[in-house]
Amino acid sequence: MLFVFSSLSFTHPATGFLLNPIFLHGLSSSLHSLFLLVVLVLCVWRKITSSAGNEAKEKPNNNTTLFKTTVFCSLGVSVFNLVLCLLNYFYWYRSGWSEEKLVTLLDLALKTVAWAVVCACLHKGFFSSGERRRFFSPFFRAWCAFYLFVSCYSFVVDIVVLYEKRLALPAQYLVSDVVSACAGLFFCYVGYFVKNEVQDTGVQEPLLSGDANGGDVLGSKETRGGDTVTPFSNAGIFSILTFSWVGPLIALGYKKTLDLEDVPQLDSGDSVIGAFPSFRDKVEADCGAINNVTTLKLVKLLVMSAWKEILYTAFLVLMNTLASYVGPYFIDSFVQYLGGHQQYENQGYVLISAFFFAKLVECLSQRHWFFRLQQVGLRIRALLVTMIYNKALTLSCQSKQGHTSGEIINFMTVDAERVGVFSWYMHDLWMVALQVTLALLILYKNLGLASIAAFVATIIVMLANIPLGSWQEKFQNKLMESKDTRMKTTSEILRNMRILKLQGWEMKFLSKITELRETEQGWLKKFVYTAAMTTFVFWGAPTFVSVVTFVTCMLIGIPLESGKILSALATFRNLQEPIYNLPDTISMIVQTKVSLDRISSFLRLDDLQSDVVERLPRGSSDTAIEVADGNFSWDLTSANPTLQNLNLKIVHGMRVAVCGTVGSGKSTLLSCVLGEVPKISGVLKVCGTKAYVPQSPWIQSGKIEDNILFGKNMDRERYEKVLEACSLKKDLEILSFGDQTVIGERGINLSGGQKQRIQIARALYQDADIYLFDDPFSAVDAHTGSHLFKECLLGHLRSKTVVYVTHQVEFLPAADLILVMKDGKITQCGKYNDLLNSGADFMELVGAHNKALSTLDSMDGATVSTEISTLEQDENVSGSPGVKENGASKDVPNCKTDDKSEQGQLVQEEEREKGRVGFAVYWKYITMAYGGALVPFILLAQTLFQVLQIGSNYWMAWATPISPDVEPPVGGRTLIEVYVALAIGSSFCILIRALLLVTAGYKTATILFNKMHFCIFRAPMSFFDSTPSGRILNRASTDQSAVDTDIPYLIGSAAFTIIQLLGIIAVMSQVAWQVFIVFIPVIAVSICYQQYYIPSARELSRIVGVCKAPIIQHFSETISGTSTIRSFDQQSRFQETNMKLTDGYSRPKFNIAGAMEWLCFRLDMLSAITFAFSLIFLISIPTGIIDPGIAGLAVTYGLNLNMIQAWVIWTLCNLENKIISVERILQYTSIPSEPPLVIEESQPDPSWPSHGEVDIQDLQVRYAPHLPLVLRGLTCTFRGGLKTGIVGRTGSGKTTLIQTLFRIVEPTAGQIMIDSINISSIGLHDLRSRLSIIPQDPTMFEGTVRNNLDPLEEYTDEQIWEALDKCQLGDEVRKKEGKLDSTVSENGENWSMGQRQLVCLGRVLLKKSKVLVLDEATASVDTATDNLIQQTLREHFSDSTVIIIAHRITSVLDSDMVLLLSQGLIEEYNSRTKLLENKSSSFAQLVAEYTMRSNSSFEKSSGH
Length: 1504
Known about the structure:
single chain, alpha/beta, 6-stranded mixed β-sheet, 54 helices
């Protein structure tokens, strides 16, 4: 076309004026004037004719992304023309005017005004036509076409003038032409080609903003991200190339705060639900079973699962590496060209095209390579998490004891995460080799043999990394181990925080965690300082290599020319990145190998023996459970099995009771039937489905309803029956949300009895064939216990097989078969009456029970017997708990609150901050260590480094000749000496910077850790009740890790890359300040893009943080409940939930990756355009005006521009995402604290309390401001030295009263006085350390027997032995190898429930307090042990005030006073004898019922 045009113009002189610049500018200005005139006329016309209604109609499209882009673009064109107009005005003002110049200025001024008007009209919707379909009016589209025509015409003419007439044309003309032509193309595209897209947008917009005109917001919420699959899965090629598929999500995030339901679902290939089944098949095909997976096989399987993406990214890496060396290769030719050595026509344009095209390829390939690898990483992480989770569900108890839950959770949160992140580094090793090879080829072309020296220097630098790398690996390993230990302890402490608070031990345990953290910090310090040395080696590397190379050139006499030196410098800078990343890559490979080894060794652990139980098909046999010659042992290595010589046959429909003393193997027998205990020999057959109720309740966090349904569908009738049978109806009425109440972690906001009954309801609802109950009646009060036994075992389950362990002798007569156990053997079995006549073991248990009952009989016998007769009539008539309970139930609805909002729930959704991460967070972080004193020094060191580095390169470019025939300005020796001096200076700056940075980062991490942990340990109990431990652990592990290692590095990177960017801009503007004309708008557009992107990225990051905790929590719940999950055969449902949660975490991660590349792609394009413009400037400047060497230097730096610019934005965005960890930790440093531990001015006397009198005055208590009162005004006095029993239905406020006594809960009104001191006026430690408690859930910590009894190390071994003997554990401990130092496993799992309770008694005996509280302390021991505990207390606490909450009437009958609570009020409070004499008292009714029950009333019921 050019050729045709030029031949036309120069053959026909008549058409010559068409090529005249004056004519061109005149045509353009008249066209713009005409446009302005038409707009004015249209505007006036519309004012006259239009009504407000029409305008309203035309506005709706105003907020679409395309509209915004168009408005923005028109404003950009206006500003560009204004800048050009001003530049020309000042330039020509000095050099004089001409007609042509005046017309040009007029044209630019009119363009500025016209495009400003276009911008305003677009914004007001003036150019949109009334129809919904059309986007722009015909007038505007016609104007776009004219504008494009004129712009292209000018462009072609200018190029013709340049080439044909050999005229020097001002560079700004060309720039103006290019910008105008691009703008014209864009507007024509928008005006003519985007009708359909607009229509779509119109329909989607209201949905996106969530307020569709239909008004059903919920409906639209569903249609949003939640149900739609990511646009990535069906995006077109253009959309994939430019990452436009993420556009709608970023646009939505810009408008509103994103939520998880806005984030689209993953494609089936990326979703673990879609990908895992085929992966599992591959594992089975390759390894047989998962137990045979070695690290190598695991790697192979993971690679095979993503081989297509890995090959595709390998191709992209190859393209990227080749494209990145085009610049260094051509720089020498470019410098020669600028120096006037033109080899062929248009060489300049060819070189620019090569540079530009290479940049485009480099940008595109890098963006897609990064994105695809992150996609692979997410998939691999999800697969590993799922494998680890599934493995945890099948682990044998033996394997599980070797790994605590904290460690197993670490496999998931740390190791799987790290293997996922490794995908980034997958291709780095071979890429380094390729880059070094290409670099050497270019160096050989430029410097000949000196390139060998460069190669040797590179190898030396890489070798220097080997010792550093191995140290780093070692420190990393130790760091991980110490972190595991700390997390394990933290998780145990959080689980048992209540007991620590009650005992006043929390600060001691905090110091334990601090000690563990100090060990971890020791390794962290070594790790970060090694990393600092590595940084020094690698930032110094390019300088070292270039010094060695140039010195070699001098020595062997290779002439140094500026073009060749610049080419070499650009090559070294390219080499710098692989060398920089090599240590990272190596340490990443090392870390990943460690993680893969850890995961594969976990996957190889032994599973439960699958052959322990022979499962017979349902209905195939009459026998439900049969054991022949069974020997079972938890520890297969131990000489004596846990259970020996078991022979047992249970027929369908039988009720079997198991009884025996503490530690006789009752619970193990049930575990056996479940297949949990490894089998040594014998046969065990089970026929039918099972349901299991463990001794210590396992409740999932979530709704009560979900806990009961446990994966089954809702059958309302059956559900109601189950609630009735488990007497849960009343409890649900009291709870504000009924069965929709969200239970805290491990059922923390329920009483022990409620948890137990929910467990029983879960089992009943399953409708299994065989029911296994592990002493579930012990945790409920006497009345509820008998109701449960009657309704559940004798009613609901009358046709089922039931095996129940019990300590309550009164439940034995109803059994068809009773098994008496002792020392792991079944010593007797038979019916109740048969056993009574034979055998000592059974008599021992029954005898203890009768002894307890005899205290009753010694009282007024007549009272009791008449009570029994009236009560029996009641039972037969209504089965109701008696008159009093019915009367009470009428008040219940009054407790109910109408507040149905989520606010009433105890466990709230995890808070996430919204909007920007405040500057305050950054400021707090930066100034935390040494008040921020190191920050200026770090910045100064980096700035000096940058100045010295640019200085050294500038020196080389200036001081070397452009070609051999030019005289160099300085001698060779001076050249090298100055260069080496500058190089050493810059390396020294880097060393200082690296050391200061890690010092500041390490110090900050330490301060944050200590602050957060102190605040958590001082938080009130309500915080732990309403905060799942997963959230706290997440901050203590993931967020703390980020603060330890990532954030200092990122903050450093952000500052350093900005300094580098400023350095590059400075160098480029030195050569051609005109670059700023393009540079300023490009920077402005970049900032706008970043501001547009940041809201979405930030919220997505926060969503990731919030989506991670549920995975951890679900996992830790699963680990603690594996036996229950397996007994109900619910593994597959739990695996599915885990996969859903994992996908929920991957969804925002995937979109973060896409959004990141969306931004980087656009920034890369902008910097490529800037680079191209600066090159055009350089070749359009006449030869001789500028030093070619310095111009070449500018190009060398410009080659890195896009990388540095993208790196700046990437680091800033990444930093904003990571700094959220600091924000989350700071969130926990401002938890409201409990009252002070010690109040100096009101410390009680050391002997306080001397009498132990507890005086309660009008006590009112609620758990949270938005929850109803639990205690509603209690007034009573517990006399000093007396024993007071507190009884009442589950949920009547017994435990709350005790918690208030220990100030776990502060009174809302009223007060408690102990020996005339108001307990609220003294410090918490002073109070809690003077009181003693044996809690409801017996707790033991991992460690030794000694530190379980005496964690504060206050007592001698003699005193500890004495306490052990008093609580009947002395002999048990003496049997163990380590005696007092024998180990206690996590949660005390190697001790039975009863033994744990005795350890708690031992603690109390050591402490010898004046006030002792027993909170259902004898729930999990048999009657004989209970009597023993009571006797011990009578002996050693005869002069103390003892407060007993008990479900066993016998435990309370020993009391001097009895307090009966009902729904937070005192119903009765008097001496035991007075209450028993009054026949109508509730207490007398309870006692009578208990006696009646003990006299085998259940035998009669079962016979009905």
